[in-house]
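Bug report (template v2)

What were you trying to do?
Predict the complex of my protein with 7PM.

What happened?
Run completed; filing so the output is reviewed.

Input:
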Amino acid sequence: MEMNFAGRVLDMSRCHVMGILNVTPDSFSDGGKFNAPDAALARARQMVADGAAFIDVGGESTRPGASEVSVQEELDRVCPVVEAIARELDVVISVDTSAPAVMTETASLGAGLINDVRALQRPGAPEAAAAAGIPVCLMHIQGEPDSMQDNPRYRNVRRDVSSFLTERMRVVEAAGVKPEDIILDPGFGFGKRVEHNLALLASLEQLHILGHPLLVGMSRKSMLGHITGREVNERLPASVAAATIAAMKGASVIRVHDVRETVDAVSVVAAMKEAGR
Ligand code: 7PM
């Protein structure tokens, strides 16, 4: 079960860690210290040293209520960072974007994965991804980032997420994205209440039935705050526990802020799975 990310081949039957690299001015409480490409590159270097197989570069804040950013602004934030990482580091560059122009431009600069929280629903996105010729992650979302947490409702969250992803696969494959280039993601926190997130985590194996590698992101998310009563900066142990569960349930990629700690947890799961084979 191998996937080719712009020349870097990974065995997706194993679990890999994706480090989050935000390049938005509001990403850091210090007022955007890591926006400069140099600082972003330094952070990326550390995450690769800590064992990240992917770096997820994001220039548009998906925070609920966040203001939308122009495509030009997003290109200005993301492109220098993608270029610098591609030049220096041995890692798959994932770009967290919904904008077709950003997909096209970053793929030409060496990005290896398109990570679109809107599952390529913007006009032109499926075609841009197909032309870029790199894998895509299709994530489930109910609504739009600014309003998705207002009143999330499902008839059956597992079935609804699964049908949404099946429909998105149909659309992007029709546009020319190859089936072997598709990763799926249940979209923890994207238009979901705690009980929806937990139902999806409990039944993560069910999404595997669709036959694609899975990516999950639960790092520091509010579901973990609800469970533990902890503020966002105190959610590392809960985040590592969530990552461990996802790894045990067969996730191929775990998207996190804290790479070193998560790599250790994933290594323990991998060692156990190896011994059990
Ligand atoms: C505000 C709301 C800030 C949500 C940040 C977030 C995922 C992702 C994000 C995920 C994939 C966060 C999220 N989450 N991409 N991008 N899967 N594929 O907490 O779960 O990091 S942004």
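What did the reviewer find?
The pocket of 7PM is lined by residues 20, 62-64, 96, 115, 117, 137, 139, 185, 187-189, 215, 217, 221, 255 (CB under 6 Å). Residues 2-276 form a domain with the TIM Barrel fold (CATH 3.20.20.20).
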